[in-house]
Amino acid sequence: MGDNVNVDSTASADPAESPLTAANRAAAHRFYTAFSVLDAAAMNAEYASSFTFYDPVFAHLPDWKAQAMWCMLSARSQRRNHVEFKIISVDDEKASV
Fold this sequence. Notes:
Layout (H helix, E strand, L loop, with lengths): L4 E3 L11 H18 L3 H6 L6 E4 L3 E4 H14 L6 E3 L3 E2 L4 E2 L1
Parallel strand pairs: 1-4
Antiparallel strand pairs: 2-3, 5-6
């Protein structure tokens, strides 16, 4: 999987991060790694039990709609994705990627 994912190395963990922030950073990394191989189940497993998804295309989606979106997009795609991502910010509650 790793050869299909490019990660900005400046997004590495800060040693002073709280354990929850570090866990959120790791979850974001696992999510986008799963996205690169179109593994919707693994992607959805990284979300909290209740969340809101946001991006410019899909706007604000409640948890169940976002999970359904990943399943639909993964099922319809005929190939793996080349995924590049950068963790812009992460804290105890959320990650912006």
